[in-house]
Amino acid sequence: MTTLLLVRHGETFDNENQIMQGQTQGRLNPRGIEQARQLAEEMKERHIDAFVSSDLNRAIETCRIIAEHHNGTIVTTPLLRERDWGAFTGRFIPDLKGEPFPDDVESLDKLLLRAQHFIDFIRERFPDQTVLAVGHGIINKAIQAQFYHKQMREVERMGNAEVRTLDIP
Question: What's this model's pTM, rounded to 2 decimal places?
Answer without folding.
Answer: 0.95
